[in-house]
Automatic annotation (TrEMBL):
It comes from Sphingopyxis lindanitolerans. InterPro entries: Mn/Fe_SOD, Mn/Fe_SOD_BS, Mn/Fe_SOD_C, Mn/Fe_SOD_N, Mn/Fe_SOD_N_sf, SOD_C_sf. SUPFAM superfamilies: Fe,Mn superoxide dismutase (SOD), C-terminal domain, Fe,Mn superoxide dismutase (SOD), N-terminal domain. The keyword Ribosomal protein does not apply. It catalyses: 2 superoxide + 2 H(+) = H2O2 + O2. This is Superoxide dismutase. Its EC number is 1.15.1.1. GO terms for molecular function: metal ion binding; superoxide dismutase activity. PANTHER family: SUPEROXIDE DISMUTASE, SUPEROXIDE DISMUTASE [FE] 2, CHLOROPLASTIC. Residues 5-86 form the Manganese/iron superoxide dismutase N-terminal domain. PROSITE patterns: SOD_MN.
Amino acid sequence: MTIAFPPLPYAEDALAPHISADTLATHHGKHHKAYIDKTNAAIEGTELADKSLEEIIHHAEGAGNKGLFNNSAQSWNHAFYWNSLSPRKTAPSGDLAAAIDRDFGSLDDLKKKLKETAVNHFASGWAWLVAKDGKLSVTDTHDAGTEVTAGIKPLLVIDVWEHAYYIDRKNLRPAYVDAVVDELLNWDFAAENLSRDGAWAYPG
C-alpha cells in the first residue's frame, strides 16, 4: 500500500485572485507531491508500508526519524490545508459559532488571533485552529510540526511556508494571511471537524 496523493478539492484556479492557479499548481503539484513521494519511498518494503499516514507520523516522531517525520507530517498538513480553504465564502454557524463566541469573544477576535499568529510566526510553519479538552484555541507549529496529536482535533490550518504565497505575494505574508482568513477559510470544514468523534483522517 502507498500513501495516496489526493487531488485538490476544487479547480486550480478556484481560489483566484487570492491564491493563483500558478501557486496551486506549484504548491500542490510539486511540493505536496514531493512530500508524498518521499514518504512512500521511505516506507516501501518496511513494516510501515501498510500503515495509515497518521500511524507513520507517530512512528517517525517516536523513533526520532526526522526525515520520515518531515515528509509524512507535511503530506498530512498539506492535505488538511487544501480542505481548510474554500472558493465559496463560508461562515461559522451552530455549535462552531457558539464555541468561537465562548472561547474568543467573537469571530472578529478569532480572526485577529489567527492573523497575528500566522503573520508573526518566525520562518516556516503552520497556524492552527484546534479543539482540545472541549475548548478552542489558536496554535502554531514550526516547519513540519503538526497538530495530529492525541487529544487534539485540528479544525483549520494556514500554511505560512513561503512557497504558499511567494509566487503571488513575494515576501508580503500579511497580505496572503489577510486573504486566507477573510476570504478563503472553510468554516464548514471546521464545523465538520468539531463534530467528529475523532480527528480528521488523511484520505486514501
